[in-house]
Amino acid sequence: PFHDEGEWDLARFLVGNLNQTQINKFLKLKWVGDSKHYLAGLTLPSQFNTCSKPSFTSKDQLLDWVDTLPCFAEWKVSCLEFTGYKTTHPIQLIWCNALEVVKQLFSDPVFANHITFQP
């Protein structure tokens, strides 16, 4: 739902670091969405425009968009110990449920029509 990677970075920052009231206040700031920057009364050329209006205009819209993003299988860590074999560092097995990964892939419209399953 986000326009580009920069907008996704902004959304992730807002959701991860601000509460809902702060997100709305941020989105209402005058400079958020200004299409021109002014410096000593001079309008900068468009190639120097580094501030564009986000596609989302409120915290409700932003949070709805975040809720529509697909969730991914949770990674888990298991520490392995073997009797009679001492290691300097613990052996960690990092894994996730393969069935959850397959379900996620088939539910993602980006991949769903490009996957063939044959048991």
Key traits:
alpha+beta; two-stranded antiparallel sheet; two-stranded antiparallel ribbon; 5 helices; 39% helix; 12% strand
Would you kindly provide a written description of the structure presented here, covering whatever features stand out?
The protein is of the alpha+beta class and 119 residues long. The chain folds into two domains: 5-68, no CATH class; 76-112, no CATH class. It contains five helices and four strands, in the order ααββαββαα. It has helices at residues 5-17, 20-28, 59-68, 98-107, 109-112; strands at 38-39, 42-43, 76-80, 91-95. The strands form two sheets. It has a two-stranded antiparallel ribbon with strand order 1-2. A two-stranded antiparallel sheet has the order 3-4. The mean pLDDT is 81. InterPro entries: Plavaka. It holds the Pfam family Plavaka.
